[in-house]
Design brief:
319 residues, mainly alpha, 11 helices, 86% helix
Length: 319
């Protein structure tokens, strides 16, 4: 246990230390007055309080699960969470990049551009998150045996259920990080988080005693979907924002086709890393191809930019 704690602590410290190797070229230290620090501390506190609730309802599941159902159920639930969270983190990275831009747009009262940028980001994330769910469901039976081991075969049934959060969480984070926080709607953000935390406590106590890890998973899904829906409804009320369901339908159709293709073409392959790599390549080809057939604007734009880039490179080589 001590070795595990040391490895986690050392890895986190090292990752933060490496940043300073590059940051020192752009950042310099200077003396800050205490009065100035306290002024900003008050503003930071507004953003810190919701993190307490987020930590509460994201970790409380495992605590209650461990007390009621035991360590085995915690292990199964924890691994399901880690796998999905890794995908969610990759998808949500764009929010951190867009936050300063959205804050600047709000400061300059460019509300229409805020709405357009928010729509582009959300539908761009759905372009990735929807096939990620179907792709995970398609590869899970060949991923779990070699990656998690024979003791965690129960994940084959649980991860496809939990994978719903791969769509719900980035969607909710986009609304909060790209609209609520940049526009100063911290009260709405905080309220949604604490509402989710309270809902999590109640559902965990109701479902975990009877369903174990499955109860914790269902609780997480319901809470995340509730929080995301609440934020979307608020966003719709404030700026008349609406999801493009026709475009989302194309994503789903392409993702379903991808799922069928992966399962059919790799059904006889052994569960190992090579199989998952093959499934990944098949999935990318089928999904991209279907999006082109369905005339998904984002894919057409990407291919057009690649074509123009290759054409530019070719012309320079000829010259």
């Amino acid at each position: 246990m001590y070795l595990y704690v040391f490895i986690i602590a050392f890895a986190n410290t090292l990752s933060q230390a490496v940043i300073w190797v590059f940051a020192r070229k752009y950042v310099r230290f200077q003396h800050i007055e205490l009065s100035s620090l306290l002024h900003h501390l008050k503003q930071m506190w507004v953003y810190f309080i919701p993190q307490i609730a987020i930590t509460l309802y994201s970790t409380l599941n495992q605590t209650i699960l461990g007390v009621i159902s035991g360590e085995i159920e915690v292990g199964i639930y924890g691994n399901a969470v880690k796998l999905s969270t890794t995908i969610v983190t990759m998808i949500s990275t764009i929010n951190n990049v867009m936050l300063p831009r959205m804050s600047n747009l709000f400061a300059n009262q460019q509300l229409q551009l805020i709405k357009t940028s928010l729509s582009d980001v959300i539908h761009g994330q759905l372009f990735i998150s929807i096939p990620a769910v179907f792709g995970l469901c398609a590869v899970i039976s060949s991923l779990v045996p070699w990656f998690f081991g024979q003791d965690f075969l129960g994940l084959i049934q649980l991860i496809p259920i939990y994978s719903v959060v791969i769509v719900a969480v980035p969607l909710g984070m986009s609304v909060s990080n790209l609209y609520l926080l940049p526009t100063g709607n911290t009260r709405t953000y905080t309220f949604s988080v604490f509402l989710g935390a309270g809902m999590s406590v109640v559902l965990n106590l109701l479902l975990i005693p009877s369903f174990g890890a499955l109860g914790a998973i269902v609780t997480t899904i319901l809470v995340e979907m509730f929080v995301t829906t609440y934020r979307l409804l608020y966003l719709r009320k404030k700026i008349q924002f609406a999801l493009d369901y026709r475009l989302i339908g194309k994503y789903v159709a392409a993702a379903v086709t991808m799922y069928i293709g992966i399962v059919f073409l790799t059904r006889h392959l052994a569960p190992n890393m090579l199989t998952n790599l093959i499934q990944l390549m098949i999935g990318v080809v089928i999904y991209t191809g279907m999006c082109l057939v369905l005339k998904v604007p984002l894919v057409k734009t990407i291919f057009l930019r690649l074509f123009l880039k290759m054409k530019d490179v070719s012309s320079k080589v000829i010259q």
